[in-house]
Each structure stands twice: as structure tokens, then as C-alpha cells.
Design goal:
The chain has about 170 residues and is of the alpha+beta class. It folds into two domains: about 80 residues, no CATH class; about 80 residues, no CATH class. It contains four helices and ten strands, in the order βββββαβββαβααβ. Strands 1, 2, 5 and 6 form a four-stranded mixed sheet that branches. A four-stranded antiparallel sheet has the order 8-7-9-10, with helices on one face. A hairpin with a 6-residue loop joins strand 3 and strand 4. The two termini are about 15 Å apart.
């Protein structure tokens, strides 16, 4: 089962834009924990589109409906020129893990390891020599607006939906 898929859409005017699609079930598998709780929170992601099932067909249908109703532009974010990382590392965090279990120089190497061991979790591309928090601010992906968003407790847990990331689920055979 796929829980989240990032999509880039090429607009005729205005250049490429992106969003991600996820399922209600996936909302319990990713996002930030509210401190001292087991509650996950998702905030500030107007480019997150929730579908009951994430497939090529449902994504295509959702994009078509958003286009038809004039909501597609507001449901996506611009792809910022030069926003992709040219130097970074792929970090794998297993499901329910507190620490990463693997760091890779390529997505291909990481996915081979994930597949070999039948792992579930999230693979995220991180910048080198810069925190995810500082990188997101520098790229214009995040702007601290709320009280507490510049405190150590917030910064040390920060991750950005704008970072390239992939979710994996173990496929059990019976």
C-alpha cells in the first residue's frame, strides 16, 4: 500500500509546481509528534492532498478535478529553481525509531538496502553542512511565524515536507 506520493505538475504558464498525496492512514505514520504525547500533527501543508486510496488513477482524477474547479494552483507549491539538493545524504528512519538506521550517498543504494531487509520507514534527502531548519528558511520553504518556532525544542525536531522523501511499508506475504 502506498501512503504518500510527491507529484510535480508542469503548468503552461508559471512553471512547475508540486504537491503530495497521502491517505488518512498515512497521517498516523508521519508528521511531528506533539511533545510528550503519541499524537502526530500536520500543519502548514496546503499542498497536502488526502485521498482514500493513492494510486496513479486516483491522483490523476484528483488533479483533473482540482484543475476543473480552479483549485489546482492553490493546492500546489512552486518548484523553486535550484531547490533540489546537489549535495546531500539520504537518511533512513525506520518506523517508530528514534534514531536513523542508515545514511546513504544515493537513493538507489538506500532503496536496495531497504528492499533487501524488508524495512518500513521514511527515506529523506538532507542537505550537507546545514540543518533542515536553516535550509528550509534559506529556500523560502518555511518562515517562522508562531511563538516557539525559533526555540531549540522546535528546531531540533524540524523537518520539511519540501525535502525530498519517500515512505516505505513492509510487504508481508502469507
Amino acid at each position: 500500500m502506498t501512503y504518500a506520493v510527491e507529484v510535480t505538475i508542469e503548468f503552461e504558464s508559471g512553471g512547475p509546481r508540486w504537491c503530495f498525496f497521502c491517505t488518512p492512514e498515512s497521517l498516523g505514520r508521519f508528521g511531528d509528534f506533539i511533545p510528550n504525547t503519541a499524537i502526530r500533527m500536520h500543519a502548514g501543508s496546503p499542498h497536502m492532498i488526502v485521498l482514500s486510496i493513492v494510486t496513479h488513477e486516483t491522483i490523476t482524477a484528483a488533479i483533473g478535478e482540482l484543475q476543473r474547479t480552479g483549485k489546482l494552483l492553490n493546492a500546489t507549491r512552486p518548484v523553486i529553481s535550484g531547490s533540489s539538493l546537489t549535495q546531500g545524504v539520504w537518511v533512513f528512519n525506520g518506523a517508530k525509531a528514534h534514531f536513523p538506521s542508515g545514511v546513504f550517498t544515493s537513493r538507489e543504494n538506500a532503496e536496495a538496502w531497504i528492499t533487501e531487509h524488508k524495512l518500513e520507514g521514511t527515506l529523506t534527502l538532507y542537505p550537507l553542512d546545514q540543518s533542515a531548519y536553516d535550509h528550509a528558511i534559506a529556500k523560502g520553504w518555511f518562515n517562522p511565524k508562531l511563538p516557539g518556532q525559533n526555540l531549540p525544542e522546535f528546531i531540533q525536531r524540524f523537518t520539511s515536507a519540501s525535502q525530498e522523501h519517500y515512505h516505505y511499508e513492509r510487504k508481508e506475504t502469507k
